[in-house]
Specification:
The complex is a heterodimer of chains A (276) and B (272).
Chain A lengths: L14 H14 L2 H16 L10 H13 L2 H33 L1 H15 L7 H8 L3 H25 L3 H9 L4 H37 L6 H10 L3 H29 L12
Helix pairs in contact in A: 3-11, 4-5, 4-7, 4-9, 4-10, 6-7, 7-9, 8-9, 9-10, 9-11, 10-11
Chain B lengths: L5 E10 L2 E11 L4 E5 L6 H9 L6 E6 L11 E4 L11 H5 L11 H9 L15 H13 L5 E5 L7 H18 L2 E6 L2 H7 L2 E6 L4 E7 L11 H23 L9 H14 L1
Parallel strand pairs in B: 3-7, 3-8, 5-6, 6-7
Antiparallel strand pairs in B: 1-2, 1-4, 8-9
Helix pairs in contact in B: 3-4, 4-5, 6-7, 7-8
Chain lengths: 276, 272
C-alpha cells in the first residue's frame, strides 16, 4: 500500500520554486503602468498638452509630497477609509443576515425576496436626495449610501451560494445527525463561502464608488473633498492625486479581502494553472 | 422465512408515476453479508435508500431489529458511490461530523483512521486524497457509530481495479471483526460473489427479485476459489434469465409508454 508512504502534500510545487514564479508574475503587473507613466512624462515634457490640463508625473509627485507633508492627504484618506469601512460593514452585515434567512428558509424568501428584488431595481444614487432630506448632510447619509451600495452584491451571492449547496452533502449532514444550527454552520455556510466572498469583493468596490458619490454631495473631509477642490480651482494635479489615492486604497482593501478568502477557502480544489 | 435483523417488504415504489419496484421481500440475518445485483434501472439504489430511511415515499415496511429505521440512525452506516466528504472539513472532522474540531483528538477517530490506513491524513483536506483514500475515509465515517447494519451503494465503482480489491478486503476485515451486517448494492457480479454469503438478483422494470444464490466458500476466501466462479456463473444465469424473462412476458408493446419501449429494447440487447 504505497499510497500511504508519502506525507500529505502541502502545496502544488516546492515553495522556493513557487516564490520565484510569484516574483516574475508580480513584476509583470508593473509593466503596463510603468510604460504609461513614461509615455505620460514624455508627452508632458514635449509640451503637447497644457500643464493645467495634464500635469507631468514629476509635478504630481511634488503635489503629492506637499499634501503628505502637511498631513492633508492622510486626513482625507483616513476619513474616506473609515466611511467605507463602516458603510461596508453595515451593508454587508445586513446582507449576510437577511441573505442567510432568505437562503435557508422558503418562508422568509417568499416574504422578503420579492421586495428586495424590487428595491434592487432602483439605482442606488437615486436615493441621494431622500437620504439628504431624511438624514441631514452629516455622516449618516454618506454611510447609508455606501451601505446601500454594498448590500445587494453580498445579498444576491450569499442567497445563491446557499441555494447551490450540493444536496448530497446536505444528506450526509442529515444522516450524521446534524440539524438546525450545526447543519447550517458545518454544511451550508462553508459551502456558500466562496460565493459570499465573490459578493464581498464586488460590494467593496461598490463601496468605494458610492463613497465618492456621497462625498461629492458635500463634505469637509475625505478624498471626495479633494476632488471637488481640484475641480473648483482647476487643479488637475489635486484631482489626479485623489484618484490615484482612491486606486491604491481600493486595491489594498481588495487585496486584504482576497488574502482573507484564500486563508478561509484553502480547502477548495481549484485549478491553479491556466492555458495561457 | 424469518430473519432476525432486517425485514424488507416493498410492495410498490413509484418514481415519476413509473413503477420502479414491485413486490420485493427479503430479510437479512445478523452478521450476514448480502449483495444485491441487477442491471441498471432495477431499483437497487432506490431499495437501499428505502432501507436507510432516506426515502419514505413507498408502500411497504422495513424493520430493523423490529423497528422502523429513521434518520439519523446510529444503527445504520451508509456508503455511497462517491465518498461525499465535506471538502471544507479535514479527514478527521469528516469521520466524526458531529464532533467538529474535537474530532482530531478523539480516540475513536484515531483508531478508525489507523484501521483504514489514513493515520497520516487526519488533518488533510479531501482534495489531498486519491479517490481510493477518500472512499476509505467514507468507510471510516460510516463505521464511527458502530452500526449494526452497513449499507453500501456501488461503493467501489469509482476506483481502479487494484484499489477496488484492496477496498473489498478492507471492508471484509473491518466488518468481519465487528460482526457488522452488510448489505451491498453492486453491478459487479465478481465483487458480489467474493464479498457475500448470499447474492440477491434483481430484474428490471419494475424491479423485483428474480432469484438468489448462496455462496458457501469458506472465509477468508481465495479469489481463485473455483467455488466462487461457479457461484458467479449461477448469478449471471439468474441475471440473464430475469432480464430475458421480462422480454418474454410480452407486454403489449404498442400500448406501453415510449420510454418503456426503449427500455425493453435495451434489456433485450443485454440478454443477447
Amino acid at each position: 500500500m504505497s499510497e500511504f508512504n508519502t506525507p500529505p502534500p502541502r502545496g502544488m510545487a516546492p515553495t522556493d520554486q513557487r516564490d520565484g514564479m510569484g516574483l516574475i508574475r508580480r513584476a509583470r503587473a508593473f509593466v503596463v503602468p510603468a510604460a504609461l507613466v513614461l509615455f505620460w512624462e514624455s508627452v508632458a515634457r514635449a509640451g503637447w498638452v497644457s500643464p493645467q490640463m495634464l500635469p507631468s508625473p514629476g509635478e504630481l509627485l511634488g503635489t503629492l509630497a506637499s499634501l503628505v507633508d502637511n498631513g492633508t492627504l492622510l486626513a482625507h484618506a483616513g476619513s474616506s477609509s473609515l466611511r467605507v469601512l463602516i458603510g461596508f460593514i453595515i451593508g454587508t452585515g445586513l446582507a449576510v443576515a437577511i441573505g442567510g434567512a432568505v437562503g435557508l428558509s422558503r418562508r422568509t424568501e417568499a416574504l422578503l425576496d420579492p421586495s428586495l428584488q424590487a428595491l434592487r431595481a432602483i439605482p442606488a444614487l437615486a436615493w441621494v436626495p431622500l437620504l439628504l432630506m431624511w438624514l441631514g448632510t452629516d455622516e449618516a447619509p454618506k454611510l447609508a449610501l455606501i451601505a446601500l451600495g454594498a448590500f445587494f452584491p453580498v445579498y444576491l451571492e450569499f442567497v445563491a451560494g446557499i441555494r447551490n449547496v450540493d444536496r448530497k452533502l446536505v444528506e450526509i449532514g442529515g444522516i450524521h445527525g446534524l440539524t438546525g444550527c450545526r447543519l447550517v454552520c458545518r454544511v451550508f455556510l462553508p459551502a456558500a463561502l466562496p460565493q459570499l466572498f465573490a459578493g464581498l469583493r464586488m460590494s467593496l468596490s461598490l463601496s468605494w464608488m458610492f463613497l465618492v458619490a456621497a462625498e461629492l454631495t458635500g463634505t469637509t473631509r475625505g478624498l471626495g473633498r479633494l476632488l471637488a477642490e481640484g475641480r473648483e480651482g482647476s487643479h488637475a494635479d489635486l484631482v489626479i492625486v485623489a484618484i490615484v489615492t482612491l486606486a491604491v486604497l481600493g486595491k489594498t482593501s481588495d487585496s486584504l479581502l482576497r488574502w482573507l478568502a484564500s486563508r478561509l477557502l484553502d480547502w477548495r480544489d481549484v485549478v491553479d494553472t491556466r492555458p495561457l | 422465512m424469518s430473519h432476525d435483523l432486517l425485514e424488507v417488504t416493498v410492495v410498490a415504489k413509484e418514481f415519476q408515476k413509473l413503477l420502479i419496484i414491485k413486490d420485493v421481500r427479503f430479510g437479512i440475518d445478523a452478521g450476514e453479508v448480502v449483495s444485491m445485483v441487477g442491471p441498471s434501472g432495477c431499483g437497487k439504489s432506490s431499495l437501499l435508500r428505502i432501507i436507510a430511511g432516506l426515502d419514505r415515499n413507498y408502500s411497504g415496511a422495513v424493520q430493523l431489529s423490529g423497528r422502523r429505521p429513521h434518520l439519523p440512525s446510529r444503527d445504520i452506516g451508509l456508503i455511497f458511490r462517491e465518498p461525499r466528504l465535506l471538502p471544507w472539513l479535514t479527514v478527521a472532522e469528516n469521520v466524526a461530523l458531529e464532533l467538529g474540531r474535537k474530532a482530531r483528538h478523539d480516540s475513536r477517530v484515531t483508531q478508525l483512521l489507523a484501521e483504514v490506513g489514513l493515520s497520516d491524513f487526519a488533518t488533510a483536506y479531501p482534495k489531498q486524497l486519491s479517490s481510493g483514500m477518500a472512499q476509505r475515509a467514507a468507510i471510516a465515517r460510516s463505521l464511527f457509530h458502530q452500526p449494526t447494519l452497513l449499507l453500501l451503494d456501488e461503493p467501489f465503482s469509482g476506483v481502479d481495479a487494484t484499489t477496488r480489491r484492496q477496498l473489498q478486503d478492507l471492508l471484509l476485515s473491518l466488518t468481519g471483526h465487528r460482526r457488522t451486517t452488510v448489505l451491498l448494492v453492486t453491478q459487479d457480479t465478481n465483487e458480489a460473489v467474493y464479498l457475500s454469503d448470499r447474492v440477491i438478483v434483481l430484474a428490471p422494470r419494475p424491479g423485483r427479485i428474480s432469484g438468489q444464490a448462496f455462496v458457501d466458500a469458506r472465509r477468508p476466501r481465495d479469489r481463485r476459489n473455483p467455488e466462487l466462479a461457479k457461484c458467479e456463473a449461477e448469478v449471471l444465469t439468474l441475471l440473464i434469465d430475469g432480464t430475458s424473462n421480462f422480454f418474454d412476458l410480452s407486454y403489449d408493446l404498442a400500448r406501453a409508454p415510449r420510454r418503456w419501449q426503449a427500455a425493453r429494447l435495451s434489456s433485450f440487447n443485454f440478454a443477447i
